């Protein structure tokens, strides 16, 4: 086994798991190390919305006791984790980055959270996100943005920027994410971390506060492909509480990550996801990665998916439509924020609903609710929602045709490296374009992963490569991801994340 | 609101001379599955408010629905019993609107892909003729919670101080059964409406899918009514060709009698407006059981747009042909056929059977006969005092009897007391009064009231002798062959016996002594 670094927060989850299993270290030690790190740096990064110090340590102690008693435990037992604030956690606040849920303590755990608890992963806290997962930067969080550890003036991606920055700043070895149009993959790309959006239905959605039900998929986030696979195996599997959950075992993702073998695999480069609009440094790192895969024994071909050009337009009709309905429940009647309208004596329930929604939702959420309400209105439904569903079917056909020729598809994960905070806040279209390469997978329900491809020459910031596989063939992501990761570590002389600048002490917080 | 002034109405017969009514009925039925439509919460009626709830039926953030297979089976059985096509593939849809008693602010329902469609139900009317009600669709959905408006005079939200919401009902499985426009009924439209709801209730009860208790809300009816100018006989081609008028939808019509009254009232109200040159406002109306009128609810304008779209949290429902056929095999005997069979078993005339059906006493008589009574006696007792009192209370006989605890077993026991000779007819009536008054079983009432035919022939004979001796004139008439005069003596004998004698036996004795 690899020797653990002196600073436990620098160890991979796989190594921590090994040391925990051999009782070299305790879960309390690891958990405390992370809590100390959080105390030292989160003032600068703002990854967490809530840190559960006592709860995490209690869970860690419980795992240590079970291990001492000789119980057989799961592979990741004792390794702490950060949970995206979109997942309900019994007894812990769950805000989804929104004021409208401020103070709400869910009475139940999401299935994913139940699985984490059962597998013995102490929950360090809840990570920041764009409000209700609407955004690509965390700037739409009602509680302020998270920052990119590579450059604190830049975005950590979104919506899962809390989870990506938590990993990139070593405030947790693992994190959960949800991906509706790229919210796991794009944050991974801009922080040099790893994230997988599993096949739709591969991980239970029960207890995920819904953005767009037909697109939402929870998935694992880690610093290495193997760590991500280990977490994927814990999170995945059938859940009778979610009708759309796949009734089949989790694909053999850990085996695939360990084997890291792409020999004889056919890899398709998606013609439509690259070229114009993609930053030169991102393209250069992508091309190098493809060349490495070829060197590793894969066969690379170019594949055209012509309908991907319409993916963004279709996505921004389907997502707001579903979101407008999913977010209707936030009405001040049963939980969360309640605001009374000003200057109204004896307000009616409807007036309280309106005042609360006006005060509780941020501008991006309102924008999408209005878009969705419009798209579903009678007289417009066929032109908007109906047409978008047709595009969705065409995109699925493009994938099916491509997978007839190749085993996996690859593209840059995001067109650019991390942009500066505030750069795209006033231009929603520019913000939406960040997800142009990740959205097709959500529309078709196929799995996708982002791993670091290197640093862009022009700005020295991380770029990501996206791997896409056919539905239920998630293991292929890990075969390709792990093989490429190893080749890139060789090429760069170590993990790319090791090149991230050291964060100063909490006192040196930049504009926090 | 009962404070609102009543609208002008036209005399019904006059209205029928000028207009042709068209109806459409929407009936909501709560299924009596053990658990709710999309979660495992129990469905029992009358529990402590908000005690039968969970994250799913409260619509908590993150919760997801899972379809109740039993409810789908019930929906398919209802569809089959209504002679519908069953969809091979259909989806749920979200009906979006804001209301505090709806936890998600959308109702999970079905929209353009109902589980059952294109059926019919043949309904027998009071005169024995049949009207075929065409069924447009039967679809699955979930019930909402229940709002209770506190303060204010009317129990409605306007004027209330505050409102309470009970979510126990939220998520109870509902089937909505929608008719096509019911045309050609003419002046009998109100009767047809009532007969349809009644037949539907019988059918659902026979299917054992719902409690169908209109007074508890497990079966609810909305009645749509419109009028068009009368140009000929109701079923004539020229009449059927006249375009439909603007309709109103009357909500909360929650008894069979109200269905008939509400339709009749709306016809008269529409007629008065149209005849005066006015036009009908498309709106929902509230039915007021107490005053027998409807008042304006909310206006159905273009603003009402439910933004239906397929429910993405649920997978499509796709019953196989084998499943559907297996469910078809579980269907009970259709109520119409069943009635014909029972009529023949019981030896009732058409008129007698119709009386029984109209009284809603078929099941009661069936159970009473099963408990040992003769069919004639069962009919006599149920259609007598209990029916009369139920009518006076404005209740159906089943509900009324259940409320009093009067059972078929009681009636069979009463009949047994007559057959065995313990009671005569008038004594049996007194016993039934006692049972209706809650004094206990027929035997217990007879014991407590000391009602028993005197079986001692010596006592009866002595009474006969005494009465004959006291009435020599009458006795002489009987001796002369005027047998009818015996009636006067029988009455006096019964009086002597304080009613506790067998009048037939008294007559035999009198005649024997005087002939």
TrEMBL record, chain A:
Top-level taxon of origin: Bacteria
Presence of the UniProt keyword Endoplasmic reticulum in the record: no
Active site: 84 (charge relay system), 159 (charge relay system), 183 (acyl-ester intermediate)
GO terms, molecular function: ATP binding; glutaminyl-tRNA synthase (glutamine-hydrolyzing) activity; transferase activity
Transmembrane segments: none
Start and end residues of each Amidase domain: 29-477
Recorded GO CC terms: glutamyl-tRNA(Gln) amidotransferase complex
EC number: 6.3.5.7
One GO-annotated biological process of the protein: translation
Family according to the record: Belongs to the amidase family. GatA subfamily.
Function (record text): Allows the formation of correctly charged Gln-tRNA(Gln) through the transamidation of misacylated Glu-tRNA(Gln) in organisms which lack glutaminyl-tRNA synthetase. The reaction takes place in the presence of glutamine and ATP through an activated gamma-phospho-Glu-tRNA(Gln).
Subunit note: Heterotrimer of A, B and C subunits.
Protein name: Glutamyl-tRNA(Gln) amidotransferase subunit A
Species this protein is from: Humibacillus xanthopallidus
Automatic annotation (TrEMBL), chain B:
Domain spans labelled Asn/Gln amidotransferase: 363-514
Reaction it catalyzes: L-glutamyl-tRNA(Gln) + L-glutamine + ATP + H2O = L-glutaminyl-tRNA(Gln) + L-glutamate + ADP + phosphate + H(+); L-aspartyl-tRNA(Asn) + L-glutamine + ATP + H2O = L-asparaginyl-tRNA(Asn) + L-glutamate + ADP + phosphate + 2 H(+)
Superkingdom per UniProt: Bacteria
UniProt GO molecular function: asparaginyl-tRNA synthase (glutamine-hydrolyzing) activity; ATP binding; glutaminyl-tRNA synthase (glutamine-hydrolyzing) activity; transferase activity
Keywords recorded for this protein, A-Z: ATP-binding, Ligase, Nucleotide-binding, Protein biosynthesis, Transferase
InterPro entries, per the entry: Asn/Gln-tRNA_amidoTrfase_suB/E (IPR017959), Asn/Gln-tRNA_Trfase_suB/E_cat (IPR006075), Asn/Gln_amidotransferase (IPR018027), Asn/Gln_tRNA_amidoTrase-B-like (IPR003789), GatB (IPR004413), GatB_Yqey_C_2 (IPR023168), Gln-tRNA_amidoTrfase_suB_CS (IPR017958), Gln_synth/guanido_kin_cat_dom (IPR014746)
GO biological process: glutaminyl-tRNAGln biosynthesis via transamidation; translation
Pfam families (alphabetical): GatB_N, GatB_Yqey
EC number: 6.3.5.-
SUPFAM superfamilies: GatB/YqeY motif, Glutamine synthetase/guanido kinase
Family (UniProt): Belongs to the GatB/GatE family. GatB subfamily.
Oligomer and partners: Heterotrimer of A, B and C subunits.
Protein role: Allows the formation of correctly charged Asn-tRNA(Asn) or Gln-tRNA(Gln) through the transamidation of misacylated Asp-tRNA(Asn) or Glu-tRNA(Gln) in organisms which lack either or both of asparaginyl-tRNA or glutaminyl-tRNA synthetases. The reaction takes place in the presence of glutamine and ATP through an activated phospho-Asp-tRNA(Asn) or phospho-Glu-tRNA(Gln).
Alphabetical list of NCBIfam families matching this protein: gatB (TIGR00133), PRK05477.1-2 (NF004012), PRK05477.1-3 (NF004013), PRK05477.1-4 (NF004014)
Name of the protein described by the UniProt record: Aspartyl/glutamyl-tRNA(Asn/Gln) amidotransferase subunit B
Organism of provenance: Humibacillus xanthopallidus
């Amino acid at each position: 086994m690899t020797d653990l670094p002196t600073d436990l927060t620098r160890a991979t989850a796989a190594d921590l798991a090994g040391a925990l299993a051999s009782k070299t270290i305790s879960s309390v030690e690891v958990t405390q190390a992370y809590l100390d790190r959080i105390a030292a740096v989160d003032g600068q990064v703002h990854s967490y919305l809530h840190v559960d110090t006592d709860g995490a340590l209690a869970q860690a102690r419980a795992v240590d006791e079970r291990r001492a008693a000789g119980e057989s435990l799961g592979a990741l037992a004792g390794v702490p984790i950060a949970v995206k604030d979109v997942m309900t956690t019994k007894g812990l606040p769950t805000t989804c980055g929104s004021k409208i849920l401020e103070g709400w303590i869910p009475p139940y755990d999401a299935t994913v959270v139940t699985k984490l608890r059962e597998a013995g992963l102490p929950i360090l806290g809840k990570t920041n996100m764009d409000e209700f997962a609407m955004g690509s930067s965390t700037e739409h969080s009602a509680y302020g943005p998270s920052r990119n550890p590579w450059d604190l003036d830049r975005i950590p991606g979104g919506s899962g920027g809390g989870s990506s920055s938590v990993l990139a700043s070593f405030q947790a070895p693992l994190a959960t994410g949800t991906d509706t149009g790229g919210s796991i993959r794009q944050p991974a790309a801009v922080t040099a971390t790893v994230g997988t959006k599993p096949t739709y239905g591969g991980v239970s959605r029960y207890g995920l506060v819904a953005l767009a039900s037909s697109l939402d998929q929870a998935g694992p986030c880690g610093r290495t492909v193997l760590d991500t696979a280990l977490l994927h195996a814990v999170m995945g599997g059938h859940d009778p509480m979610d009708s759309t959950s796949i009734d089949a075992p989790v694909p053999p993702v850990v085996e695939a990550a360990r084997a890291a073998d792409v020999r004889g695999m056919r890899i398709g480069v998606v013609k439509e996801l690259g070229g114009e609009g993609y930053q030169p440094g991102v393209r250069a790192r992508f091309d190098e990665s493809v060349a490495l895969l070829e060197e590793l024994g894969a066969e690379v071909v170019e594949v055209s998916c012509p309908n991907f050009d319409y993916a963004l337009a279709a996505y921004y009709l389907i997502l707001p439509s579903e979101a407008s309905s999913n977010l209707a429940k936030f009405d001040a009647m049963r939980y969360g924020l309640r605001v009374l309208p000003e200057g109204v004596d004896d307000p009616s329930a409807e007036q309280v609903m309106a005042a609360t929604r006006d005060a509780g939702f941020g501008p991006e959420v309102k924008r999408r609710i209005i878009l969705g309400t419009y798209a579903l209105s009678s007289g417009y439904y066929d032109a908007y929602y109906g047409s978008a569903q047709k595009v969705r079917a065409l995109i699925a056909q493009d994938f099916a045709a491509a997978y007839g020729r190749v085993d996996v598809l690859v593209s840059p994960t995001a067109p650019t490296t991390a942009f500066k905070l505030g750069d795209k806040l006033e231009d929603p279209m520019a913000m939406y374009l960040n997800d142009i390469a990740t959205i097709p997978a959500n529309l078709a329900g196929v799995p996708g992963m982002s791993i670091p491809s290197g640093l862009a020459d022009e700005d020295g910031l991380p770029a990501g490569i996206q791997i896409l596989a056919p539905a239920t063939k998630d293991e292929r992501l890990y075969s390709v991801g792990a093989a490429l990761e190893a080749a890139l570590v060789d090429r760069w002389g170590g993990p790319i994340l090791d090149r991230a600048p050291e964060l100063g002490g909490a006192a040196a917080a930049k504009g926090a | 609101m009962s404070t609102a002034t009543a609208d002008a109405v036209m005399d019904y017969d006059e209205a029928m001379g000028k207009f042709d009514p068209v109806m459409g009925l929407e009936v909501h039925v709560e299924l009596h599955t053990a658990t709710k439509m999309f979660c495992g919460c129990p469905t029992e009626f009358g529990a402590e408010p908000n005690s039968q709830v969970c994250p799913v039926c409260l619509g908590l953030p993150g919760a997801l629905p899972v379809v109740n297979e039993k409810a789908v089976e019930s929906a398919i059985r209802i569809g089959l019993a209504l002679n519908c096509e069953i969809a091979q593939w259909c989806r749920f849809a979200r009906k979006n609107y804001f209301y505090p008693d709806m936890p998600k602010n959308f109702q999970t329902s079905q929209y353009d892909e109902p589980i059952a469609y294109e059926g019919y139900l043949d309904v027998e009317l009071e005169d024995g003729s049949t009207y075929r009600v065409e069924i447009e669709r039967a679809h699955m959905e979930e019930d909402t919670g229940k709002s209770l408006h506190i303060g204010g005079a009317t129990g409605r939200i306007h004027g209330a101080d505050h409102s309470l919401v009970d979510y126990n009902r939220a998520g109870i499985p509902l089937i909505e059964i929608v008719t096509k426009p019911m045309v050609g009924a003419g002046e009998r439209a109100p009767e047809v409406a009532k007969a349809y709801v009644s037949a539907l209730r019988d059918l659902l009860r026979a299917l054992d899918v719902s409690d169908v208790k209109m007074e508890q809300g497990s079966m609810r009816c909305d009645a749509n009514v419109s009028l068009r100018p009368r140009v000929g006989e109701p079923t004539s081609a020229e009449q059927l060709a006249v375009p439909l008028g603007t309709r109103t939808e009357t909500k909360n019509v929650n008894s069979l009698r109200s269905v008939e009254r509400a339709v009749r009232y709306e016809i008269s109200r529409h007629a008065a407006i149209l005849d005066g040159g006015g036009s009908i406002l498309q709106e929902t109306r509230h039915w007021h059981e107490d005053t027998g009128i409807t008042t304006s609810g909310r206006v159905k304008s273009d603003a009402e747009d439910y933004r239906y779209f397929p429910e993405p949290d649920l997978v499509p429902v796709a019953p196989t042909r084998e499943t559907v056929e297996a469910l078809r095999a579980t269907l009970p005997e259709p109520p119409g056929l069943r009635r014909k069979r029972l009529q023949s078993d019981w030896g009732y005339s058409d008129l007698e059977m119709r009386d029984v059906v109209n009284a809603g006493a078929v099941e009661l008589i069936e159970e009473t006969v099963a408990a040992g009574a003769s069919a004639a006696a069962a009919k006599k007792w149920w259609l007598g005092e209990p029916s009369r009192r139920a009518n006076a209370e404005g209740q159906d006989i089943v509900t009324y009897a259940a409320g009093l605890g009067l059972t078929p077993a009681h009636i069979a026991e009463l009949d047994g007391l007559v057959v065995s000779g313990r009671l005569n007819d008038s004594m049996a009536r007194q016993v039934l009064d006692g049972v209706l008054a809650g004094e206990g079983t027929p035997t217990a009432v007879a014991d407590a009231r000391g009602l028993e035919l005197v079986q001692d022939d010596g006592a009866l004979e002595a009474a006969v002798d005494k009465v004959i001796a006291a009435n020599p004139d009458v006795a002489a008439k009987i001796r002369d062959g005027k047998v009818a005069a015996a009636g006067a003596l029988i009455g006096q004998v019964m009086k002597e016996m304080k009613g506790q004698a067998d009048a037939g036996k008294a007559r035999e004795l009198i005649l024997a002594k005087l002939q």
